[in-house]
Structures are given as structure tokens and as C-alpha cells.
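Quiz preparation item.
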């Protein structure tokens, strides 16, 4: 069986599109991680986990799940359309805007729900108690990264048109 150059070109373009989409989504996730310090002012995440192997490994594990969701979503539904290298037909700006906008809205919803949860917790549970243990902060970061991965994945799956 001989594989044609047209097929190889299509596969290569598919991988390039998925790689660029993944890189853009990873940057969006980086912005989400950086915004965490502004959302959760009671928790000093990165100072707390620094130097604790278990907490750091939880953070890294969350990142792997986040990256897996991003790569999967980018492979299935990248920002790109056709096989042409011309910018207008190759790059889908509308999809990029939908992903960025839905990510921002989802991040806002997450922040809003966090604030509401922090105010309505029963029995006086103080969410800054998480800050007392590096492992607890690592688990918190793990969950946040899974949350980011899910909202990026959902943003990539929004049907256009």
C-alpha cells in the first residue's frame, strides 16, 4: 500500500492545526491560572505548594488533565478549517473568538459561584483554611485545572453555524 503525498500533506496540516490550537488554548489556560490569584485572594496557592512534593505533583497532575482536554478538543475541533494555507480559509477567527469569549464567561461563572459558595458555606467554614496545608492547596489547584480544561474543551466543542 502506497500512501500518497496528498494524504500525507493533509495529515501534516491536521497535526499543525491541532498543535497551534492546543498552544493557543494552553496560553488561554495560563491566563486562567494567573487569574486564580485574583479570584481567590484568601489562598496563596503557589507560595504554599512550593517545596512540597505531593502538592506540586497534584498541581502537575491537574495540568496533565488540563492539557489532555485541550489537546483532545484541538484534535477534534481546531481553530482551522480547510487545507488551504491562505489565512482567510485556513484560520477560523470566529471559532477563536467563541473560544476566548466562552472561556472568559465560564471563568466569570466559576468566580461568581466560588464567591457565592464562600459566603453561603454552612457552619462557618472558612475557605482560607485550604491555605493551611500545601496538600490541600495542591488538591485545590488540581480541581481548578480540571475546571479550566473542561471549560476550554466545552468552548472548543461549541458548534458554529
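Solution:
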Amino acid at each position: 500500500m502506497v500512501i500518497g503525498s496528498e494524504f500525507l500533506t493533509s495529515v501534516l496540516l491536521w497535526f499543525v492545526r491541532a498543535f497551534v490550537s492546543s498552544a493557543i488554548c494552553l496560553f488561554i489556560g495560563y491566563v486562567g491560572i494567573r487569574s486564580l490569584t485574583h479570584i481567590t485572594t484568601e489562598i496563596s496557592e503557589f507560595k504554599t505548594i512550593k517545596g512540597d512534593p505531593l502538592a506540586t505533583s497534584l498541581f502537575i497532575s491537574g495540568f496533565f488533565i488540563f492539557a489532555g482536554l485541550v489537546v483532545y478538543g484541538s484534535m477534534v475541533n481546531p481553530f482551522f478549517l480547510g487545507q488551504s494555507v491562505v489565512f482567510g480559509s485556513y484560520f477560523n477567527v470566529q471559532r477563536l473568538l467563541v473560544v476566548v469569549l466562552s472561556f472568559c464567561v465560564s471563568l466569570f461563572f466559576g468566580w461568581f459561584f466560588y464567591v457565592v459558595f464562600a459566603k453561603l458555606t454552612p457552619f462557618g467554614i472558612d475557605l482560607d483554611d485550604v491555605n493551611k496545608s500545601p496538600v490541600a492547596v495542591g488538591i485545590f489547584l488540581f480541581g481548578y485545572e480540571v475546571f479550566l480544561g473542561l471549560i476550554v474543551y466545552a468552548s472548543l466543542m461549541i458548534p458554529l453555524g
